[in-house]
Structure formats: structure tokens, C-alpha cells
Amino acid sequence: MKQTIILIIAIIANALANIFVKMGALSFEDKRFSQILFYFLRNVYIWIGLVCFGVAFVFYSIVLSKTKLSVAYPIMTSAGFLIVSIFSNILFKESFSVYKIVGIAIIVIGIWMVSTL
Length: 117
Description:
Elements lengths: L1 H24 L7 H10 L1 H21 L4 H24 L5 H19 L1
Helix pairs in contact: 1-3, 1-4, 4-5
């Protein structure tokens, strides 16, 4: 049970990291590389994303110390994909097609199958 909670924290932190980095990256399209670097250094969303990546790394490392990589990795990546897809639709108005919904359902079934074997 403890490993499950730690893995959930890692998954949520990783998903939040990706969402915050996306939020921070929304307005740097037309900048040169040197400008992007300074933009990142001053952008609060990028910093929050980096902190979330750090939290995810620490908690995921703890999970890996006691869980099989072949079980933890599919759960981490696919559950993160599910969370990011939902929030991308809500926050960034990214579309949800029937194919995407079916694909997410298949992923959830795959997570269940991998985690119970």
C-alpha cells in the first residue's frame, strides 16, 4: 500500500511537471535560443515544472528500489499519459477524439494487466 501511494505521488508530480512546462512554454515561439534560456530562467511555470520533475524523480526512485521496473514503468508512463491527456483537454483545449478515448481505455486495461501479473 505504501509503494502504491508513493507511485501515485510520482505519477501526479510527473504529470504536473509536464503541464507546468507546457504552460511556461506557450509564449516563447519566436525567440532565439539565448532568449529562450533567459525566458525559462524567469518563468515561474518552468520553475514549478522543474520542481515537480524533481519530486517525481525522488518518489519514482523510491518505488523502483522495491518494485519491478517492468511493472512500475508502464504504470508511470501510461497513468501519466492519462492525466496529461485529461488536463490538456481542460487547460489547453486539446481535442479528444473517439480514437484517443479508445486508446486511453486500452492503455488503462494494459496497466491493469501489467500490474496484476
